[in-house]
Design a protein that fits this description.
Length: about 110
């Protein structure tokens, strides 16, 4: 039996493809500064913290072993949208200054 010749095949496509790292700094929803929001993921504690270094907005969330900083940023966007919708839903529209205020109901003393 003889020795096998080494193959001149190229490595599989998955090992040849280089992965780009995901972002860990983002644009703030409130002050709109680029790369001012940083996300720190503490897998040991199971908590992620997001903070803007310009306007000091903060957000905290639970994490698992698959959570990435971009996931926490997306959760923050969703939470801010939900809070804004909730805020608009509970507010009553302000009375217009062009309308007169409604008169209080009158009490008739003649009906006794």
């Amino acid at each position: 039996m003889g020795k096998r010749k080494k193959s001149s095949r190229k490595p599989a496509a998955s090992s040849a493809r280089k992965r780009d790292p995901l972002d860990t700094t983002f644009t703030c929803l409130f002050c709109h500064h680029d790369k001012s929001v940083t996300v720190r993921v503490d897998r040991k504690e199971g908590i992620a913290q997001l903070a803007c270094r310009v306007c000091d907005q903060r957000y905290q969330s639970k994490v698992n072993h698959l959570t990435e900083p971009v996931d926490i940023y997306s959760e923050w966007i969703d939470a801010a949208d939900a809070a804004q919708k909730e805020d608009h839903g509970t507010r009553r529209p302000a009375a217009s200054s062009s309308r007169p205020a409604p008169a209080p109901p009158s009490v008739d003393s003649d009906d006794d």
